[in-house]
């Protein structure tokens, strides 16, 4: 059985740092600890308002850390130029709103497919793997495939927020059905958003799952047990 990879999102290390505008805690050091503790790649979301990760954080991790860098970003010309400059190993295009606390669901793959396709082709030509963060819906998955995306990252927020076995099972089934389509289209399958130590295992066991991208719950747990232990524990749970 193929091992499921773990991408550790370190945005909230930067959130804490930005609260005081200090140098620490340093996302660069967090990236090193995460990779040495079992993470397969470092995930960073560069937002238009730079509320947590800053440009120099991406530069530092890209140049000073030996490991995979996965960049989450909005599908805008500014972010396209940023990605082409810093050359992460992979990019996930996500919906972004200035007023949101965190990403609110998957990208709506309607209306601007021509613009999205141009960005996908531009990144792909530079050797950057491109994924879309979408809800587990056939229309969105097919649209991402049709404009050249390599990977689908399924949004797991509804599953993560479901209370009770019946509701959670219903949302898990939607993820499973979506995964069948992703693999039928010969795309890579990732998942993430809202996953924690109590709900991650069923998603990790979905047929064809290749990578789980998780941040908030790992950083939260790290406050009590340390980042090294928090990453290692999550890695064990998704195997």
Can you describe this structure in just a few lines?
This protein has about 240 residues and is an alpha/beta fold. Helices cover about 45% and strands about 15% of the residues. Strands 1-2-3-4-5-6-7-8 form an 8-stranded parallel β-barrel, surrounded by 7 helices.
Polypeptide structure, described:
This protein starts with a strand and ends with a helix. The mean pLDDT is 95. By secondary structure, it is α/β, with parallel strands linked by helices. It has helices at residues 11-20, 27-36, 55-64, 77-86, 113-125, 138-146, 157-161, 165-184, 200-204, 216-225, 227-237; strands at 5-9, 41-45, 68-73, 90-93, 129-134, 151-155, 188-192, 211-214. The protein has 11 helices and 8 strands. It has one domain (5-237): Alpha-Beta Barrel (TIM Barrel). It is globular. The longest helix has 20 residues, at 165-184.
Strand percentage: 15-25%
Category from helices, strands and their pairing: alpha/beta
Please state the CA-atom Rg, rounded to the nearest Å: 17 Å
Annotation, overall tally of beta strands: 8
- Give the H and E element order: EHHEHEHEHEHEHHEHEHH
Overall pLDDT score: 95
Tell me the domain tally.
1
The assembly state of the depicted protein chains is single chain
- The 3D shape can be described as globular
Specify the number of helices.
Answer: 11
CATH class: Alpha Beta
CATH homologous superfamily annotation: Aldolase class I
**Major sheet attributes:** 8 strands, parallel, barrel
Strand arrangement across the biggest beta sheet: 1-2-3-4-5-6-7-8
Uncertain spans, ≥5 residues at pLDDT below 50? Answer: none
Q: Could you say what the CATH architecture is?
A: Alpha-Beta Barrel
How far from one another are the termini? Answer: 10 Å
Q: What's the helical proportion of residues?
A: 40-55%
CATH topology: TIM Barrel
């Amino acid at each position: 059985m193929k091992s499921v990879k773990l991408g550790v999102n370190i945005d909230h290390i930067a959130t804490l740092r930005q609260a005081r505008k200090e140098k620490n805690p340093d996302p660069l050091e967090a990236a090193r600890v995460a990779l040495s503790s079992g993470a397969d790649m470092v995930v960073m979301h560069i937002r238009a308002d730079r509320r947590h990760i800053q440009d120099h954080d991406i530069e530092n991790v890209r140049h000073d850390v030996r490991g995979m860098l996965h960049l989450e970003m909005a599908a805008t010309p500014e972010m396209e130029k940023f990605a082409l400059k810093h050359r992460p190993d992979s990019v996930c295009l996500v919906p972004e709103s200035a007023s949101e606390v965190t990403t609110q669901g998957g990208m709506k793959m309607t209306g601007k497919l021509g613009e999205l396709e141009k960005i996908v082709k531009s990144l792909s030509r530079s050797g950057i793997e491109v994924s879309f963060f979408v809800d587990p819906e056939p229309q969105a998955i097919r649209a991402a495939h049709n404009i050249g995306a390599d990977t689908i990252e399924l949004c797991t927020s509804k599953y993560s927020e479901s209370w009770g076995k019946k509701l959670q099972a219903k949302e898990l089934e939607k993820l499973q059905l979506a995964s069948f389509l992703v693999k039928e289209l010969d795309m890579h399958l990732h998942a993430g958003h809202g996953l924690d130590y109590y709900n991650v295992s069923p998603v990790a066991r979905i047929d064809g799952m290749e990578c789980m991208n998780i941040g908030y719950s790992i950083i939260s747990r790290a406050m009590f047990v340390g980042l090294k232990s928090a990453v290692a524990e999550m890695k064990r749970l998704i195997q």
